[in-house]
Design brief:
- Helices cover about 0% and strands about 45% of the residues.
- With about 450 residues, the protein is mostly beta strands.
- The protein has 2 domains: about 325 residues, TolB, C-terminal domain (Neuraminidase); about 120 residues, no CATH class.
């Protein structure tokens, strides 16, 4: 049975959409703070709730049931024309995948997914969405769930936190299944909690508190309320941003709210500003390995400003904070643009990298071995790097990686730089190591852009 609260549709939505002015190069939100980009990632004619990520970066979205929710999987490494002057990511073959998700969904450092359901916590396969074991822990309200960065325990909202006398936040060890109450709040503090998320230190838990009044509530590790931050919008999803540090909520009135805390002190009242507006009913949020925020919207706006009743997943970049279990990219490997052909075997890291790759703009310098600290969000722009392995390549690589395909790579005088005309997805082969003598190779499986 779908969540009744989340099925309410705003009766005036069609009228309001007619009043939205036409804005070019926008998706979903007609206003977004400067310095950020938004992209329609995918859409479908179902209700979207929580999200998480497959091992190769594909985006999982559930349908927000109390339990038994299937999962839609959007392919990160492929885009297709959306028929409205833009592109979006298609659903993977087989979507929707049978699962037993609730609404809240999160990755975990153990390499699996966990979902808050009316049956308790459900453990899911990160690659297939299939249930891995029986539900455990007290029954949940099917909404907020996250990972405690200090203990790796699952922290989630219990079933009583849906208009009863108490609201319990549970902490449970996913290995021993030993649970405890992280916090028990009276109804005067919290009657209906949705999204939850820890700060980077794990010392504060932020919760989207939808009743008895709209507010963001901050708890310390003792489960004590540090402060209630009153809001004019009803919060749902919640996430963190760094450089600068602030918190955002995805709200049910088509807006997003930004909270900036003085000196990053979460015990002090924050300054609130409109981060985004002019969108659709917002639901849960999650941050991916690309450090972009993925959020659910109860509607779709395309690049030509036409709209659809389909729900959508919207990507907002950059510099958001992934939860434990989602490993952020610290840089990118590079190949030559003439090698960026699906099915082509490529070398993205090697002592002889310049000779292994071909470039339409001419030869590359021998000093570059294939890794830059730049993480591009899309095609265009440029990257820079230090020579050799001084660019600090990762110790290991996952099965699939996003790779820059450059047409020109130059060195002047000690800084190496290149362009970003293409980004491709490479399926990696065994043998990579952070020393240039441990060659990194793989096969191009798709072109992300252009």
């Amino acid at each position: 049975m779908k969540l009744q609260v989340k099925e309410r549709i705003l009766a005036l939505s069609v009228v309001l959409l007619c009043l939205v002015p036409r804005l070019e190069a926008q998706n979903s939100f007609t206003f977004l703070q400067s310095g950020f980009t938004q992209t329609l990632f995918g859409n479908a004619p179902v209700f979207f709730g929580g999200g998480a990520f497959a091992p190769n970066g594909d985006v999982w979205v559930d349908y927000c049931f109390f339990s038994g929710s299937p999962l839609t999987r959007f392919v990160f490494g492929t885009t297709t024309p959306d028929g409205h002057g833009g592109v979006e990511h298609p659903q993977a073959a087989g979507s929707p995948f049978a699962s037993n998700a609730g609404c809240g969904l999160t990755n975990h450092p153990d390499g699996t997914l966990y979902s808050n359901t009316g049956l308790g916590v459900v453990n899911l396969d990160q690659n297939t969405g299939a249930q891995l074991r029986a539900p455990f822990g007290p029954a949940g309200n099917a909404l907020g769930i996250t990972v405690d960065p200090q203990t790796n325990n699952i922290v989630y909202v219990q079933s009583d936190c849906r208009f009863t006398l108490t609201c319990t936040i549970v902490s449970i060890n996913p290995v021993t299944l030993v649970s405890s109450n992280f916090a028990v709040l009276p109804s005067s503090e919290a009657e209906f909690v949705d999204g939850v998320f820890f700060d980077l230190s794990g010392n504060f838990l932020f919760i989207s508190n939808r009743a008895p009044v709209f507010r963001m509530t901050i708890l310390n590790r003792n489960g004590t309320v540090v402060q209630n931050v009153a809001m004019t919008s009803e919060p749902d999803g919640i996430a963190f941003h760094i450089n600068p540090t602030f918190v955002v909520t995805n709200n049910t009135d088509g807006t997003m709210t930004r909270f900036d805390f003085p000196s990053n002190d979460f015990t002090l009242p924050p300054t609130q500003t409109a981060f985004a507006s002019g969108g659709f009913r917002g639901d849960l949020t999650q941050v991916g390995p690309d450090n972009c925020l993925y959020l659910s919207q109860n509607g779709t706006r395309f690049a030509d400003n036409t709209t659809s009743g389909n729900n959508s997943t919207v990507q907002i970049c950059p510099n958001f904070v992934p939860p434990p279990g989602v490993i952020p990219a610290t840089g990118s490997f590079v190949i030559g643009d003439l090698n960026a052909i699906p099915g082509e075997t490529v070398t993205f890291w090697d002592a002889q990298w310049a000779r292994d790759n071909s470039f339409s703009g001419g030869p590359a310098p021998d000093a570059f071995k294939g890794f830059t600290n730049t993480v591009p969000q899309r095609c265009g722009g440029s990257w820079t790097s230090d020579p050799g392995d001084s660019s600090n390549p990762p110790d290991t690589v996952p099965p699939f990686i996003a790779v820059i395909a450059s047409s020109t790579v130059t060195k002047s005088p000690a800084t190496i730089s290149g362009d970003i005309p293409k980004i491709v997805i490479v399926k990696t082969n065994p043998g990579y190591g952070p020393s240039p003598g441990n060659t990194g190779t793989g096969t191009v499986v798709s072109v992300v852009c252009p």
